[in-house]
Specification:
CATH topology of the largest domain: Rossmann fold
Structural class: alpha/beta
CATH class of the largest domain: Alpha Beta
CATH superfamily of the largest domain: Glycogen Phosphorylase B
Distance between the termini: 75 Å
Strand content: 15-25%
Mean pLDDT: 94
CATH architecture of the largest domain: 3-Layer(aba) Sandwich
Oligomer: single chain
Radius of gyration: 29 Å
Low-confidence stretches: none
Number of domains: 4
Length: about 850
């Protein structure tokens, strides 16, 4: 049977037509005033619709809409809210005041966590991407987001009676979500043509308004595609390697084509992880076609305007495809742009110059970017080691990989009650500058009584929510009426409440707190100083070890003696996260050091007055101070992981018993925990601005976006003539580099020198057919470690002293002696061009 489709839309009274404008801009997800319009229409229906205003407007009875169109009180509020939205969209922003340029920045991510009613995210990466767009909107940064619109999204979690995770994949109804189809010039739905392994596929384009920021989402689930190609965008992180490469082609290549078709061509492309790295290949093709240039010239322009943020601390976190699989999908591309297949594989290969049998998306992203960063200070260090194999001659410390520590969007995290407190004591416009330290200075002026009362109200709401959620879980599992009734009495509204809500990956160690159950139970059940735990989180469907860990947590929570003090909440999502971060007293995080790139959940408790208890990993490694929260251990690393877990679980129990519980229950005559409140205030004042996503987006804008935009403009001017010169220079460098050698190094002064003096050195360098202006000769020096390796080294340029002929040149210089002890140095030559963008340009070095 052939079925034709048509769309049914709500009929809004003319007086209320602006409700569509309010509903289709997800500013309501972080603006309480806009959200209040929909709760006033029908609070019960708002909650039943998963706080989705589009669905609410589709289900509201027509009679109710007609009543509202005559309700003067509602109409006054509605008019003010509509004006509030329009004023936000048109006002002068931070970017407008700070920069005259408005280069378009395309921010590509495989997932975006904006609101629970748009379930196209799985966890931290997606929520971070959502917060990035929200802060870009608040700040007026000229960003456009690009992602995928998944038919099923990420899985919904439910548990069997014995605690084993099960998954279900509900279907997203795009026409009842805050997304709208993009139309072409004729008014027809826009379709983007793609080729997938020699087969044609059409890609539908959707748009979400995120405040001032458009988010473009791509979807292959349309009737004109073959069934297997319709399924490409079904599940987030679902399917096999072939599904994954297809998704990443749709995201990167389809995303660039969609931007071009919509007239939104970017100047800078920001890859949020390597999933979108294929965008660079399409951007090269577009520039070749537009400017009539070759692959190498277009490559230089794309690299100048590329930004790559990596979020993984382990090699397995990068997407890697076999060469055979990549050839099926990109042989046509290589032929079209005129490069050999060997050259194509080198773009994503490991060590330059070696035959590649795999294609690493991180390698492609690195080679097509001028700015690369990790997402915390510690992760920046780790990333320099992870990515060094792509530039093997560059010392790890000099790897051109910096860091921008993640942040959380304050207005999306803070409770309505706490925001009201800030309105009174920080100023009504505090939310405009959450990344500025001065905004938070008046936190100390908030009366302890008011702050504590506000925090306790949020804990009460968390407990009430947990009880409702737990009762529903038991009912859905077919539990008895008695069990449901018991759930009504779990937790206390006055007890110290610790939250742990994470992805259940083994390195996050959800069971670390369970290693000594007898000791833990003494802590939880101590009379008049009781402690309670709320757990939430999902294991990846294929992660059996993670599922076992989750099952162990659930089994603990079901033990009769702790059932009222420990709860596991199923189906962790933005709703559960919001209640937790706004209501817990302590946020617990227990990853193995070096395996959490950043983490942002602990940042979300900061403006809500919650305190952090964590191992010194990710963001907490740079945030921790003794009066701001608690650390588990001192940042040690262990070879014996079982021993590490024993040591750190004992440290966790010690901290709870000796510090956290006594301070929380240390009450004065007025019943207030003054010492605890002092920690709350200092944490809010010091850490809230430092770990705001507004601060994060400022950094990206000033350090990466504008410099990348300027570099792209510089190499693209005059018909991309600078890019042509740079490409020809690189071709000449690569062809001649095998002849370059540092022949001889000698010191002109004794090798024992006093502090403050200098060590004079000379070097003879063979450049072959290259000229002295093509290279920089440097001495790399610094203190030696126990392995006689230079640590904390610095490069000192050596000056050209004399050209001896035959391509040999003599260089000299003086190394500063600033530190006593055993120091070392090496001499190297590396290519240099004023437009090459530094060490990422070639990765070439020759050492003595």
């Amino acid at each position: 049977m052939k079925v034709e489709s048509f769309r049914v839309v709500p009929v809004l009274p003319e007086r209320l037509l602006g409700l569509r404008e309010l509903a289709y801009n997800v500013l309501w997800s972080w603006d309480e005033e806009i959200r209040a319009v929909f709760t006033r229409i029908d609070l019960a229906l708002w909650n039943e619709s998963n706080q989705n205003p589009v669905l609410l407007l589709g289900r509201i009875p027509q009679q109710r809409l007609e009543e509202l169109a005559r309700d003067e009180g509602f109409l006054g509020f509605y008019d003010r809210t509509l004006e509030h939205l329009r004023a936000y969209l048109s006002e002068t922003t931070w970017w407008d005041r700070r920069f005259p340029e408005r280069p378009r920045i395309a921010y590509f991510s495989a997932e975006f966590g904006l609101t629970e009613s748009l379930p196209i995210y799985s966890g931290g990466l997606g929520v971070l991407a959502g917060h990035h767009l929200k802060s870009a909107s608040d700040l007026g940064v000229p960003v456009v987001g690009v992602g995928l619109l998944y038919q099923e999204g990420y899985f919904r979690q439910y548990l069997t009676s014995d605690g084993w995770q099960q998954e279900k994949y509900p279907i997203n109804d795009f026409y009842n979500l805050p997304v709208q189809p993009v139309e072409d010039a004729s008014g027809a739905p826009l379709r983007i043509p793609l080729r997938l392994a020699g087969r044609d596929v059409a890609v539908a384009v959707w748009r979400v308004e995120v405040g001032r920021i458009p988010l473009i989402l791509l979807d292959t689930n349309i009737p004109e595609n073959p069934q297997d190609l319709q399924d490409v965008t079904d599940q987030l992180y679902g399917g096999d390697q072939e599904t994954r490469i297809r998704q990443e082609i749709v995201l990167g290549i389809g995303g660039m084509r969609a931007l071009e078709a919509m007239g939104l061509e970017p100047v800078v492309c920001h890859m949020n992880e390597g999933h979108a790295a294929f965008l660079s290949l399409e951007r090269i093709r577009q520039l070749m076609r537009k400017h009539g240039v070759g692959f190498s010239q277009a490559f230089e322009a794309v690299r100048a305007g590329g930004v790559f943020t990596t979020h993984t601390p382990v090699p397995a976190g990068f997407d890697v495809f076999t060469a055979d699989l990549v050839e099926r999908y990109f042989a046509e591309y290589a032929a079209e742009v005129g490069i050999t297949w060997k050259r194509f594989l080198e773009l994503g290969g490991g060590t330059p110059g070696l035959a590649a049998d795999t294609f690493n998306m991180a390698g492609l992203a690195l080679r097509t970017s001028s700015h690369v960063n990790g997402v915390s200070e510690l992760h920046g260090e780790i990333s320099r080691g992870l990515l060094q194999k792509y530039l093997p001659e560059v010392p790890e410390e000099e790897m051109p990989v910096s860091h921008v520590t993640n942040g959380a969007h304050t207005r999306s995290c803070v409770s309505r009650e706490m925001a009201g407190l800030f309105d009174r004591y920080l100023g009504a416009d505090w939310w405009r500058r959450p990344g500025v330290a001065a905004t938070w200075q008046n936190v100390d002026s908030i009366p302890d009584e008011e702050l504590w009362a506000t925090h306790e109200r949020r804990r009460e709401r968390l407990v009430a929510f947990t009880r409702r959620r737990l009762m529903r879980q038991i009912e859905q599992r077919g539990g008895s009426a008695r069990d449901v009734e018991k759930a009504r009495g779990v937790l206390s509204t006055r007890s110290l409440t610790i939250g742990f809500a994470r992805r259940f990956a083994t390195y996050k160690r959800a069971t670390l707190i369970l290693r000594d159950l007898a000791r833990l139970k003494r802590i939880l059940l101590e009379h008049e100083r009781e402690v309670q735990l709320i757990f939430a989180g999902k294991a990846h469907p294929k992660d059996q070890a993670g599922k076992e860990m989750l099952k162990a947590v659930v089994e603990f929570c079901q033990q009769p003696d702790v059932r009222t003090h420990a709860v596991f909440l199923e189906d962790y999502d933005l709703v559960v996260a919001r209640y937790l971060v706004q209501g817990v007293d302590v946020w617990l995080n227990t990853p193995r050091r070096g395996l959490e790139a950043s983490g942002t959940s602990g940042m979300k408790v900061l403006p809500n007055g919650g305190l952090n208890l964590s191992t010194l990993d990710g963001w907490w490694a740079e945030a921790y101070e003794p009066e701001l929260g608690w650390a588990i251990g001192r940042g040690e690393t262990y070879d014996d992981l079982a021993y590490q877990d024993t040591v750190e679980s004992n440290a966790l129990y010690d901290t709870l018993e000796k510090e956290i519980v006594p301070i929380f229950y240390g009450r004065g005559a007025d019943g207030l925990p003054r010492s605890w409140i002092a920690r709350m205030k200092k944490s809010m004042r010091v850490l809230s601005p430092r770990f705001s996503s507004n601060r994060m987006v400022w950094e990206y804008g000033e350090r990466f976006y504008l410099p990348a935009a300027q570099a792209f403009g510089a190499v693209s001017e005059n018909g991309m003539e600078p890019a042509r010169r740079l490409a020809e220079w690189k071709k000449r460098i690569f062809a001649a580099w095998s002849d370059v050698a540092v022949l001889q190094v000698a010191t002109a002064t004794p090798t024992s020198r006093p502090v403050g003096d200098g060590l004079e050195i000379e070097a003879r360098v063979q450049l072959g057919t290259l000229l002295p202006e093509d290279v920089v000769v440097e001495a790399y020096h610094g203190p030696l470690d126990e392995h006689r390796k230079i640590r904390g080294g610095q490069a000192v340029p050596l000056r050209l002293v004399k050209s001896e002929g035959g391509g040999v040149h003599r260089y000299g210089g003086t190394l500063p002696c600033t530190r006593s002890g055993l120091n070392g140095y090496g001499v190297r030559a590396r290519p240099f061009h004023e437009d090459d963008g530094g060490l990422l340009a070639t990765g070439l070095m020759k050492w003595w």
